[in-house]
Amino acid sequence: MVVPEEPRGRSNSVPPAQTPTAKHMLPYLPRPPTHTSRYGTFPQKHEPPAAPGEERGPPMPNHPSPPQGGGEPSLAPPHRPGDPPCCPPATRWPPLPGTRSRTPEGPPGRRRRLLEEEGLVAQGGKRQRQRYVTKVGKCQVNLGNIQEKKRFLSDIFTTIVDLKYRWFLFVFMMCYILTWVAFGTVYFLDAWARGDVAHRGDPSWRACIQNVDGFVSALLFSVESQRTIGYGARMVTADCAEGVILLMAQSIVGSMIDALMVGCMFVKISRPKKRAQTLIFSKNCVISRRDEQLCLMFRVGDLRDSHMVDAKIRAKLIKSRQTAEGEFIPLEQSELNLGYDTGEDRLFLVEPQIVCHVIDRRSPFWDLSAESLRREQFEIIIILEGIVEATGMTCQARTSYTEDEILWGYRFEPCMSLEKGAFHVDYSRFEMTFEVQTPAASAKELQERQEPQPPALGLCWDQLLPPRPPGTGQRQEEPPESGDTD
């Protein structure tokens, strides 16, 4: 008897606009608990296809497997030498009633095709594993389909400062060149309308602007006036009022352009973003025990002698999850406590510091163990903020750690020593770690092992009997009469 193939269940997290094909369904389908976890960033991790000679994992859920053991005899033919070694021999299933079986496209064939397609999707997903923030702190988020772009023009100063250097220099030069050409054209048109060009070389003609008899000479006069060069060969006379008005307008416009462009250039050169390049983070995080508590630690350092004022550090966990209602939250941000309650998140960053996150009940890593760490998918973003001592501007440095960059059971080596009356920092040991004895269990399991077991509850017979009202069931002694004597 052939077991009919059950349709694969569709999760509520699949967007309704997409067609539920294999490629769209695979990232949302439930995975066996031995290979992945419930949560993960996308694309989801998938196991690569098995190599020749290796055993394949358990079959895909909701797919029947051919009978094995002492039931019906197997319908699979013996392996022939001509079969390709990379694929298992196809199982021949009897066709269903009313169907034509031209090729062996039974459930095993479909399952094999789906596994191969899943392997391709997994390889493509591994190549497309995108970080939210790079190691140097650049956010990998591209904004698109912005309809109201006029908002950028309302803040023209920030827009110009945020431009790349090649576009910034282009805007810087064009602001001056366009104003020179514009006012030079106006000067030339004024000289042509008054007849100064036609009376070129006439000593008796009183021109508006002396020695302006063409476009080139008008352009030179525009540059000399705006940049206050003043060679003395060309100048405005008192015979025309429009020349004086044009000279005043060009002086005002030139001053405004100088203030805007020079200010933008100064801010762009002195931006604290360059100061963040001298703030370094360790390439890996480590998890080990500190003060009998499991902790997640990383190292941060400052390469400059001028220190960061009021340096604060915080961490964000980027992890996708699915709610109880079936909603898929792609990149949910949660806070990692780095000592905000105790003030340990404020650093005196003179020498390299090891920042510690205690994995307690409030930590999202409460259930994380060494085994589950290899199946998880998340990203930790570290943000270091402070005031630059030289300029007084706020500086921010960022980095990120993925699950592959966390070392379980390691600790950072010391990089500071005392030499000649001062502390010496050896940055060549900044990244060095060494292995320490650390349990592979999660912090929750370690806490449960340390908690004492509650004592067994003992039952007493008096506790099982119902309570009796006072004065019943007991013989009360009567007080002796006053006349009775022994």
Short recap of the structure:
The protein is an alpha+beta fold and 486 residues long.
Q: Mind describing the biggest β-sheet?
A: 5 strands, mixed
The total strand number stands at 14
Helix count?
A: 10
Uncertain residue ranges: 5-47, 54-79, 83-93, 95-106, 120-127
Instruction: Examine the coordinates and then state which fold CATH places here, giving the name of the CATH topology of the domain at 275-447.
Output: Immunoglobulin-like
The overall pLDDT average reads: 76
CATH top level label of the domain at 275-447: Mainly Beta
Order of helices and strands: HHHHHHHEEEEEEEHEEEEEEEHH
- Structural class of the secondary elements? alpha+beta
Rounded radius of gyration (Å): 40 Å
Q: Helix content range of the residues, please?
A: 25-40%
Straight-line N-to-C gap: 103 Å
Q: Assign the CATH superfamily of the domain at 275-447.
A: G protein-activated inward rectifier potassium channel 1
Strand percentage: 15-25%
Based on Cα principal axes, name the global outline: elongated
What CATH architecture of the domain at 275-447 do you see?
A: Sandwich
Region (Disordered): 1-127, 441-486
Domain Potassium channel inwardly rectifying transmembrane: 133-272
Biased composition (Basic and acidic residues): 44-57
Main location: membrane
